[in-house]
Amino acid sequence: MKHSRVGSLVLRNLALFMSYAVFWQSSGPIAWTQANLPQIDDLNRNPNAMNLIGGIVSARVRVRVRNEPTPSADVTFELPENGVFLPTDGVVLDSESRTASVTTDESGIAITPPICPIAAGDFPISVTARANGQSTVATIKQANEVPQFEQLKLRVLQGQNTTGYIRQQKATEPVVQVNDEDGKPVACALVTFRAPTAGPGGEFKSGNFLKVRTDAHGMARGWGFRPNAKAGPFAIDVNASLAGRDAGAQRIDQQNRISSHMITIVEGGDAVNSIGRTASAKVRVTDALSGLPVPGAAVTFSLPAHSFFLDGSRRLATADAVTNETGEAQPPPICPTEAGPFPISVVATFDGEPWQATIGQSNRGQGFKILSIRAQPGGEAVNNSKQQTDPKQLNAAEPAVRVADENGRPVACATVTFSVPEKKDGQFADGGTKFDTGTDARGGAVAAGFRPGDKSGKFDIDVNADLLGVHALQLKLPWGKGSHTGLIVGLIIAGAGGGAAAALAGKKGASTTTAVTPTPTTSTVVITPGNGTVGHP
Fold it and tell me: Is residue 181 part of a domain?
């Protein structure tokens, strides 16, 4: 009897337990699931927004559970075919993304990355929110309007005519801007950069071809561009398109160099030179990236036609120099001979690679009408009253003169010609009886290398000078036993020489011959009006 009562109690408890289990399965879990299902709120100001093609848009939602904002919920946005997400740097690598995953903030809000509408039509954005193991799907209804522009224009902002350095692997990344026909920036245009596949060129982060979407300012950059191993010029082809509009191809010209050297003008840039005065120039060769000087670079300076460098007695059309420890190089004094622009070409070579620059100068017209030739005075004289020309004296002094203008100022770059009657009297360094040289910055000229001949006695060394058609009256420089240097002056006559000579005679066009005798001197300069000849007594 007792056992039957116990068994009955157990059966009653078991039935009660089973009834609770059935209730939990049927109502408890379902109610809990529904209560914890995420809810998605569309936070866009205009639920039926019309997106502008050529602009950037976004979408925002709030995720709630039990009507409370849910932070750290996972939200996935999916775009239709007529829209793409704009990458952080705009670069499109393999394919453009239409899916983006974000996490809600403390307020339960999730915002899409920038969105590019690329074609007109309905633009439904699918949203999936996941929280507490549950997920909910919603749709943000938008639409893309027809483009408001008809044309696209492409403008190069950076990279045109720049240089890449192979050894340093440095180059200028090209940057372009896409605008509409009214000059307004167009966002989300697809820009393609294409570098050559052979020869000089370079590569972007994705190879020789790169696609980039323009940002809110209409700008796109050729990210990661680096030179290849080939030196020389090349072009990067660029194009842009959006919603069936095409900007047309643009060309960005660049070049690759082996190393990053550059020429800086240190002296002489924009100088204005005077004819009859020497000019100067100086450059510095440096590394374009580090700024450090480059010693040992070979530098060649070249002048325009009819001008020359004055290197001692030599006249050079080009001058070679080597940079010093500070990277600087300077040519000999420069003789400008014509008025007008005066560009000096500079080529610096290092590591077998030449670099070019131009020093822009200009020359003003000559400021003189009359010049004079004087024998060098005193200690600078090449011959004096005590000196004799002895054939055995192989180290005889060299004839020297100085040329000045009518105001006594020295005249540089004038052509001076020394000549002797015959080799028996003497000969110059080249073995001849005539020697051409030019005046230096002080107007001085020396018949370098002159040696006496085997003839004893006195003779004259004839000296002539001219510059730009202004010719000096000949100076006869006494030479040999018993000759005196003294002060012997030759007047230069501009154009028709007789005018200046007649003026010195006191009467223009006079037919008489006037002797001008400088003091002190043992020689007489005879000026004949009309022909500008000078005779020696």
Answer: yes
What's at 369, amino acid-wise?
K
CA distance 501 to 533: 9
Q: In this structure, are 354 and 377 located in the same domain? A: no
CA-only gyration radius of the chain, Å: 46
* Residue 28 falls inside a structural domain: no
Where in the sequence is the domain holding 251, given as residue range(s)? 152-257
Find out whether 509 and 502 touch, Cβ atoms under 8 Å: yes
The verdict on residue 381 lying in a domain is: yes
**Residue 79: partners with Cβ closer than 8 Å, 6 or more residues away:** 85, 98, 99, 115, 123, 125
> How many Cβ atoms sit within 10 Å of the Cβ of residue 242?
26
**Mean pLDDT to the nearest integer, 302-330:** 91
Residues 377 and 499 in one domain: yes
Q: What is the DSSP letter of 423?
A: T
Beta strands in 258-375 (DSSP E): 261-267, 272-274, 282-287, 298-302, 308-311, 314-316, 318-322, 328-329, 334-335, 340-350, 353-364, 371-375
The confidence score (pLDDT) of residue 303 equals 95
- Does the bond joining 520 to the residue before it have cis omega, within 30 degrees of 0? yes
Q: What is the mean pLDDT of the chain?
A: 81
The first and second tokens of residue 79, run together, are 């775009």
